[in-house]
TrEMBL record:
Biological source species: Leptospira neocaledonica
Alphabetized Pfam families for the sequence: PilZ
InterPro entries, alphabetized: PilZ_domain (IPR009875)
Residue runs in coiled coils: none
Protein name according to UniProt: Pilus assembly protein PilZ
Residue intervals of the PilZ domain: 2-107
Gene Ontology MF term list: cyclic-di-GMP binding
Length: 118
């Protein structure tokens, strides 16, 4: 059963969504697997081994065609099988109005483009 409240979209391969993730003792540059208004799924090859992922993280989100914006979030565990593949969720806990607008616009744009192609 689907737990998510927001629509999630998968970025186009030639237009990746890039994230800079700064946490307690680590800094990563990652590419989003999917994006929603409430969070982003990322693949982390090192699976955050040895990192403190229980504190808040700072995120800089770069959506194609938009100015980068900052947000705060927390790393969430998706499932043991997804975690084994290095997949984690980033849930936004604080995001400014402009960033939220960019996210909403991006998700709507990709949803309608995929519908037209579909």
């Amino acid at each position: 059963m689907e737990k998510r409240k927001q629509v999630r979209v998968v970025p186009f391969p030639k237009q990746p969504v890039q994230l800079q993730l700064m946490g307690n003792g680590f800094l990563d540059i990652l590419v989003a697997q999917d994006v929603s208004e409430g969070g982003i799924a990322v693949r982390v090859p090192h699976k955050f081994d040895g990192c403190d992922i229980h504190s808040s993280v700072e995120i800089v989100v770069s959506l194609p065609g938009y100015k980068p914006f900052k947000a705060l979030g927390k790393i969430t565990h998706l499932s043991a099988s997804k975690e084994a593949q290095g997949l984690f969720g980033l849930q936004f806990t604080q995001i400014d109005v402009k960033g939220k607008g960019f996210l909403l616009d991006y998700v709507k744009k990709l949803t309608s483009l995929r519908r037209m192609a579909g």
